[in-house]
Write a structure and sequence with these properties.
heterodimer; A: alpha/beta; Alpha-D-Glucose-1,6-Bisphosphate, Chain A, domain 3; 4 domains; six-stranded antiparallel beta sheet; B: alpha/beta; Spore Coat Polysaccharide Biosynthesis Protein SpsA, Chain A; 2 domains; two-stranded parallel ribbon
Chain lengths: 454, 389
């Protein structure tokens, strides 16, 4: 078996096939997952499994399923789907789920995202470490099979998933908008047309063929270079909105009718506003990298803004603790309470289209009132001793209000920044927001000077 | 709602026109008092029948506040009472030589006041009956027996002690590991959240100072207790006061509110006279919104069954002090059971309540609540309806 320390990350399992992750490893991980579920959910009898379009998917899923069944649990095979579909399966069927995907990573990668029943997250501190430990034992032949192996059944959840996604909006109020979706040869190619099937939109899907080699561009829309084709097409056909999905279609980025990208922060603000129109007064979670405009918009619309650390496990946990209705991240992850607090790009898409349908104007006009500040974007700097550098910067800006929710946040009133370390590399990530782009450049230089001062 | 009000106004005008028309037609310019009384009674009777039929058929069809038109006996009694007043005024006016039309108009106005008062009274008693009736419900779900929600703004000096006192007072009764203390830091500029965490409370941190209503909403919705009680961070209500509220909730009440005007309430430190008067004015103002008569809507200690509390606070909108009124409004509307328990209170000097400004804000919020109720903002969602049965 391969080295699990390399592929088991903080929130998922990921590696290159076949040198880092292969069938034998997946079988052992299946045993580990089943054993964890048996210990923590004694009444659970089935596990749902889905995969994206990567060529290594079928082999790895089959091996993982063997591992699951060897421990007496049965397998519900969803076939190919998006990551938000496995959360839907887990939530609606009340079973744990395993999604085989490496998200936006290149074709040679594959991986597994796991969740407990009801789409409850599994990470290093919540199950992944135990799963890894049992997998190692299993590979060494130290885990006995159950007396009665589990069975396997297949099911198609796409129609049920479409109905669930539609339930977040009033589909009868949609306007016939022109929509271009770039699914980047990822799972959006399967899911997006099905969700749009019965809706009055004029939909054009680019790169819809499922192809794990990503022949057109990398399936990672947070990179501006991967939006270029979509932007060109939006201009060419005069679309009202462009949608860019990532490889496993759980993230969506928006492009307005002028082919300008709409940031994750702005989209979070728009979705928060939509949520508060339907349910005024509820709490909305946003990560601390998001624009200050998000909190302002939430307050203006009667809601309660609550700040979170960056990362889906923190957002989901905080949503559970506060009963929040919606959560958003600058990275275009959008979480919904009524979606078992899991994130879904396609639900976010429906809510944006509902907002745009109800609005007498264009997408750029719709988001203009929410676009209040200029942002630096994430600036990564390689440094020696991230913790020391953060203290050094904290001292340099000691006159301003600071907090340590995630790395260091300094709020100087008219501008603010967050500086946080990467979990895996000697990197510091700087995000800064100010009134306009000139102030942003000036302040970024100021913070960078504080980082490098000796 | 607007159209309903319009119908109500039109029906009122039609009835008044019938009343005036028949009265003036039947009595001549110079009539004996017996003719006057007879004319007035026939006019009133016709108007009452017309108004009853029209309102029942059109205005209040299927409306929850239409309780009075659905009770013919109550309606008749009210109409008779108003009729007696009407006849009396007409006669008195006549004996002073007032013109018949002017006399009748005065009578109609006074009778309208009497009628309005009686309708309110009838509605009060109906609502009170609803509130006094406990319903059979399955136990509320929740991880803890009790969550105490403590909204706090710039309380870093006191919050640690408050959390400690609440725990010491309550844990022996509630049980070890069965008590959740949830401090909601309402955007404090000091170390309130850190101090509360250090004292062992769970903390929800609001980004900005939004107001007590928002903080309590965030707390009750996020609470994990089967019962939830909120109280003030300065412990104006002694911690032990939580226990009778918890007892009430576990005895089957949906909502248990503290009442400072209850006969048994002891006020430890008399509030300044002006503030007390202010408090009464506030309570009186709430009649703009509420049907029921509550002794003390603004009392800062209230408890809820966990699931009921969440279903209520998922719908509240007011971030300021008037959120209490929303709670009562929703309780009335959802026909929840509600009881009051007496509480002692220690009114501190230097409280942050500013009489005039706060009363004005409260007034504005009450109007907001009325409007929100009018457009159906407090209606139950299907999930909430399931919780409340």
């Amino acid at each position: 078996m391969k080295d699990l320390d390399v592929i088991v990350k903080a929130y998922d399992i990921r590696g290159t096939y076949p040198d880092q992750i292969d069938a034998a490893t997946c079988k052992a991980l299946g045993v580990g997952f089943a054993s964890y579920i048996r210990a923590n959910e004694p009444h659970t009898t089935e596990v749902a499994i889905a995969r994206d379009m990567r060529p290594s998917g079928p082999e790895l899923v089959a091996a993982f399923g063997d591992g699951i069944r060897s421990q007496g649990l049965s397998v519900v095979d969803i076939g190919m789907g998006s990551t938000d579909m496995i959360y839907f399966a887990s939530g609606s069927l009340g079973v744990p789920g395993a999604m085989f995907t490496a998200s936006h990573n290149p074709a040679e990668y594959n991986g597994i995202k796991l969740c407990r029943s009801g789409a409850a997250p599994i990470g290093e501190d919540s199950g992944l470490a135990e799963i890894k430990a049992v997998a190692i034992k299993s590979a060494a032949g130290e885990v006995a099979d159950a007396a009665q192996p589990g069975s396997i059944r297949s099911t198609d959840l796409l129609d049920a998933f479409a109905a669930h996604v539609h339930s977040f909006v009033d589909v009868s109020a949609f306007r016939p908008l022109k929509v271009v979706a770039d699914t980047a040869n990822g799972m959006g190619g399967l899911v997006v047309p099905r969700i749009f099937q019965s809706l009055p939109f004029d939909l054009e899907v680019m790169y819809a063929e499922l192809d794990g080699t990503f022949p057109n561009h990398e399936a990672n829309p947070i990179e501006p270079k991967n939006l270029v084709d979509l932007q060109a097409r939006v201009t060419e056909v005069g679309a009202d909105i462009g949608l860019a999905f990532d490889g496993d279609a759980d993230r969506v980025f928006l492009v307005d009718e002028r082919a300008q990208p709409v940031s994750g922060s702005l989209t979070t603000a728009l979705l928060a506003k939509a949520t508060l129109q339907a349910k005024p007064g509820v709490s909305i979670i946003y990560n601390l990298i998001c624009s200050k405009a998000v909190a302002e918009v939430v307050t203006e619309n009667g809601g309660i803004p609550i700040r979170s650390r960056v990362g889906h496990s923190f957002i989901k946990q905080l949503m559970a603790e506060t009963g929040a209705e919606f959560g958003g991240e600058h990275s275009a992850h959008y979480y919904f309470k009524d979606n078992w607090r899991a994130d879904s790009g396609i639900i976010a898409t429906m809510m944006v289209l509902a907002q745009l349908s109800a609005f007498d104007g264009t997408l750029s006009e719709l988001v203009a009132p929410l676009d209040r500040y200029a942002a630096s974007g994430e600036i990564n700097t390689r440094v020696e001793g991230t913790a020391e550098v953060i203290e050094q910067v904290a001292d340099a800006f000691a006159q301003h209000s600071q907090d340590r929710l995630d790395g260091l946040t300094v709020d100087a009133g008219s501008w603010w920044f967050n500086l946080r370390p990467s979990n895996t590399e000697p990197l510091l990530r700087l995000n800064l927001e100010a009134a306009d782009s000139n102030s942003v450049s000036a302040r970024v230089a100021e913070v960078q000077a504080a980082m490098t001062a000796t | 709602m607007r159209s309903r009000l319009r119908f109500f106004a039109i029906v009122g005008l039609v009835a008044t026109a019938i009343d005036l028309g028949i009265y003036l037609m039947l009595r001549g310019p110079q009539s004996s008092w017996s003719t006057v009384v007879l004319a007035d009674l026939v006019a009133l009777g016709s108007a009452a029948v017309a108004s009853y039929v029209l309102n029942r058929l059109v205005t209040f069809r299927g409306h929850s506040r239409a309780r009075w038109v659905s009770r013919p006996a109550t309606f008749a009694l009210t109409a008779m009472l108003a009729g007696v007043v009407d006849v009396f005024v007409v006669l008195v006016a006549g004996s002073f030589g007032v013109a018949p039309l002017a006399g009748k108009v005065a009578a109609v106005l006074l009778a309208a006041v009497v009628r309005w008062g009686s309708y309110r009274w009838v509605l009060f008693s109906e609502v009170r009956r609803d509130l006094a009736e406990r319903r059979d419900r399955a136990p509320s779900p929740g991880q803890f027996r009790l969550t105490v929600v403590v909204p706090a703004f710039n309380e870093s000096d006191n919050i640690g002690a408050t959390v400690g006192l609440l725990r010491d007072e309550l844990e022996p009764t509630v049980g070890l590991g069965e008590l959740e203390i949830l401090v909601v830091d309402d955007g404090s500029e000091d170390q309130t959240a850190d101090e509360a965490e250090r004292a062992g409370a769970r903390v929800i941190r609001l980004v900005e100072n939004l107001g007590k209503g928002a903080a309590v909403r965030a707390g009750v919705v996020g609470a994990k207790g089967r019962s939830v009680v909120f109280t003030d961070a300065d412990l104006a209500y002694p911690p032990a006061m939580v226990l009778p509220i918890l007892a009430g909730l576990e005895d089957g009440w949906d909502v248990v509110v503290g009442s400072r005007r209850h006969e048994e309430t002891t006020t430890l430190v008399r509030a300044r006279r002006l503030r007390e008067l202010g408090g009464r004015a506030v309570n009186w103002l709430t009649h703009l919104v509420l049907l029921g008569r509550f002794r003390d809507t603004q009392c800062g200690i209230k408890g809820f069954r966990g699931d009921v509390g969440r279903a209520i606070f998922q719908r509240t909108l007011i971030n300021g002090f008037a959120f209490d009124v929303e709670v009562f409004l929703i309780a009335e509307q959802d026909r929840l059971s509600l009881t009051e328990v007496p509480v002692s209170v220690e009114n501190r000097q230097g409280s942050s309540v500013r009489l005039l400004a706060d009363t004005a804000k409260l007034f504005r919020d009450l109007i907001r609540i009325r409007r929100a109720a009018g457009r159906g903002a407090y209606r139950l969602t299907p999930e909430q309806a399931e919780v409340l049965g």
